[in-house]
Amino acid sequence: MPELPEVETICCALQQNIPGLKVQDIRVRDARLRWPVDEIRLRQLVLGQTVTGVHRRAKYLLIGFEQESTLILHLGMSGRLLLLSDSQPFHKHDHVIFYFDDARQLRFRDPRRFGMVDAIPPGAASTHPRLAHLGVEPLSTGLSGNDLFSRAQRLQRPIKNLLMDAGFIVGVGNIYANEALFHAGIDPRTPANEITLADWQNLLARVQEVLRDAISKGGTTLNDFVNSNGETGYFQLVLAVYGREGQPCVRCGSTVERIVMVGRSTFFCPACQSGKRSG
DNA sequence: CGGGCGGCCTGGAGGC
DNA sequence: TGCCTCCAGGCCGCCC
Fold this sequence. Notes:
Elements: H1 4-17, E1 23-28, H2 39-46, E2 51-57, E3 60-65, E4 70-74, E5 80-85, E6 94-100, E7 104-109, E8 116-120, H3 145-151, H4 159-163, H5 174-184, H6 197-219, H7 231-236, E9 257-261, E10 264-268
Helix pairs in contact: 1-6, 3-6, 5-6
The chain binds a DNA duplex through loops.
């Protein structure tokens, strides 16, 4: 399940590999992704264009072209991007293929089809429906705990739900929300507007820490091709609470608990994350 | 408008 | 062993 660290790793790998390549052909083998793939638009905006750069926004990959059009991709939860030679046989779930002018191709493979692929006309990236309402990047240098503290003042929802809200802050998936809250010693159920400034500063630092740690580990799994797998990166990650229901807390030995919040598994140590809850 | 929730989708795990 | 159910997950759109 590609989260922000995996997408960042893929972004870096693509940036090192595909600028300067021209898209010679596009093939859509299955258009049924999260949104139907608009092959006509892909061809209109991307065909014959040369890649100039690759960027990441939230968990979206943005591939820029010479004429200022942009290819936007999301890997959903099972998506992979593969940079392969043209001779490689198709996999059952290879849905969209971009053929480059060097006999290689970028393949979008996504068994569960939660991902998306679209093309954006020049100048329209900021208004694209997938990008227009995104919150702040957790790793942006200008971001401070004070910013988040201020924005949370009127929000009563549990802090964990807010952390996972892409309109508030992007790229913090379920695993990293759980881990960051544990390391910050904050109960995931704490109303967001009850988090102190000091706790926000600590929490942001812990979010950045778990993301950076995962990025550094993901980077080591990159091999000969653009490997969006990320799975091996996950195995290297030491998860303190996620998936550890019933096991002893790595910090205090108390039993890790699991609850469900907004339909998502939530793991925490009731002793280390006691916080200041009134409930 | 804040915010919870259903649904999309398929492979893997667990139960019988 | 096979079948059946359940679960995971990001994110949009619906609804209160």
